[in-house]
């Protein structure tokens, strides 16, 4: 977190909304800088009332002079409409404070382990059981 400036430096893409650029299960590495947000960059943002951050592309930015204030509109590449329906009730634009990082690199498919363990908890418990057995039965 100290090196990247992002509160969440690594995220897993959980849906197909960014295809074909990013697929479900891809891991994104995030960085946060003070540079102005630009149309076309991939950002990860939080919205009040939603527990999981959203990975989408900036499609429009309205800056207010040199104050660092901006209104940001995002959209998933595979989605027909912009993200206004995802934002908090009555909110039409994101603020820079809601963005937790900008995508700077990715590794395809590695996040599937996280998705499988979240969607199929039995697999997580089986894996924990096997690891526990290995610890108990190992010599050392």
Account of the protein in words:
This protein is of the alpha+beta class and 140 residues long. It folds into 2 domains: 100 residues, Umud Fragment, subunit A; 29 residues, no CATH class. Helix content is 18%, strand content 28%. The protein is built from 2 helices and 6 strands. It has a 6-stranded antiparallel beta sheet with strand order 1-2-6-3-4-5. A hairpin with an 8-residue loop joins strand 3 and strand 4.
CATH superfamily of the largest domain: Umud Fragment, subunit A
Unreliable sequence segments: none
Give the rounded overall mean pLDDT. Answer: 89
CATH topology of the largest domain: Umud Fragment, subunit A
Determine the structural class based on helices, strands and strand pairing: alpha+beta
Number of self-contained structural domains: 2
**What is the radius of gyration computed over CA atoms, rounded to a whole number of angstroms?**
18 Å
- Secondary-structure element order, N to C: EEEEEEHH
Strand order of the largest sheet: 1-2-6-3-4-5
The overall strand count is 6
Keywords:
140 residues; alpha+beta; Umud Fragment, subunit A; 2 domains; 6 strands; hydrolase
How would you concisely characterize the structure shown here?
Its EC number is 3.4.21.89. The chain has two domains: 10-109, Umud Fragment, subunit A, CATH 2.10.109; 112-140, no CATH class.
Structural topology:
Elements: E1 10-12, E2 27-31, E3 42-45, E4 54-64, E5 69-75, E6 99-107, H1 112-119, H2 121-137
Antiparallel strand pairs: 1-2, 2-6, 3-4, 3-6, 4-5
